[in-house]
Amino acid sequence: MLLQGNRYEDPPQSAATFKQMLQQRYGANCPDFLETSWQDAAVQAHRQYKFLFIYLHSPDHEVCPAPDQL
């Protein structure tokens, strides 16, 4: 579970929400994110012998835009 403000959010739901925000802003120019937890993505990458890129985003960090500013 991910902490979003004062509430916890399911990892697949959080990934889907983030992916939707990126697609609205960048259209087809954004990467194809898996809508799953990082652990499930790591298992899939391991099984398929693929690299796994993990993007960590914190709207609380000074250099990261807030989700509504993406």
Kindly summarize this structure in a few lines:
The protein has helices spanning 11-26, 38-48; strands spanning 2-4, 7-9. It has 70 residues and is mainly alpha-helical.
Provide key terms for this protein.
mainly alpha
Biggest sheet overview: 2 strands, antiparallel
Task: Please bin the fraction of helical residues.
Answer: 25-40%
In angstroms, what is the radius of gyration?
Answer: 13 Å
What structural class do helix, strand and pairing data support? Answer: mainly alpha
User: How much is the average pLDDT?
Assistant: 77
Q: What is the H/E string?
A: EEHH
| Tally of alpha and pi helices | 2
Write a structural description.
The chain is 39% helix and 9% strand. The protein is mostly helical and 70 residues long. The protein has one domain (2-69). The longest helix has 16 residues, at 11-26. The protein is globular. The two termini are 22 Å apart. The mean pLDDT is 77.
